[in-house]
Amino acid sequence: MADEWDPLWRRWHERRAPTRGIHLDCAAAGRTSSATISAVAVHMRLEAELGAYVAQSAAAETLTGLRSDLAALFGLPRDGVALVESASAALRALLSCWPLPKGAAVAVAPSEWGPNLAAFAAAGMQVVLLDADEHGVVDIDRLQHRMITNPPALVHITQVAAHRGLVQPVATIARACREAGIPLWIDAAQAVGHVDTAIGPDAVYATGRKWLCGPRGVGFLGISERWWSSLQVQHHVLAASDEPTVLAMESDDANVAGRIGLAVAVGELLDDTPAAAYRRLDEVGAATRAALDGLPGWTVEPANGSAITALRPTAGQDVAAVRDVLLVEHGILTTASMPARAPHDLAEPLLRISPHVDCSAEQREALRHALYTNG
Question: N or C: which end of the chain has fewer CB within 10 A?
């Protein structure tokens, strides 16, 4: 893969200011482009000059365009997308408005994100684990059998695991759920901008700060039209009487400047063509795993179509300490994935590497050398 000669690499790289080191942590927060930063600053200045709500009204067309672009990424109608503060806020909103019976069973993969499990427990739901193969991929045959013999009230899938390069077959899962008449919710926080998400789920939610490289503090949720009339949404007092049901889930007091910035970031992805970005990220993940394969003291965890690479320590290393050494002594940003991130899947910490499309061979070699020296 000739990194710097790839057109997508060049466009993505040239849109951003140089890093102070090597950024390999997009699964935590991606690098915003200069245009995104500028859009946020311009809107904040308008808030100061015109008044916050006047500036928000003037930005209505941009925000409507953002909802439309996000809806297209998920295969949903524009009026089915609401802008919120984070993926966590989106999940709370879904749990508060969805018509679920008390003590409802929610089926999840063993790799489910830990905070989601905590949110289900707080809502009084019963969590049941779906069967998966040796790599953690949901077993579709077993899923279909469960739908017949012991159907849950809801299936919830984290499309791309946050702690390792695991991608669930959500399109196939969605078909199985539709055939059984069971709603499917998707946590797309690590998926949107990373892999194909256009499957038209019953509900989906994410944050804009990861692979979309938008500002922090902006998330969104999408809901299929067939559920709108069933939602128990409390319209806020100032809402227009004809406001779409899902749109009424947006908060009055919002980070509008961040939403404007996300509109720019999503527009850049669409300009690059999402499919091209997904292919490039798949290549980057494969190249990263190949570069780290055989590294003494570490085992590369298997992956299936993700830019995320996870390293398992085999020589008793303290992963959190290694992460700190990489950052402080080598300027390489990574993440220590602790077991609480996926308590049914993670028995020990993993070192997570999550580069974006502009990761170069030189950066991968620098990481390998730093780990060989200090890990």
Answer: N
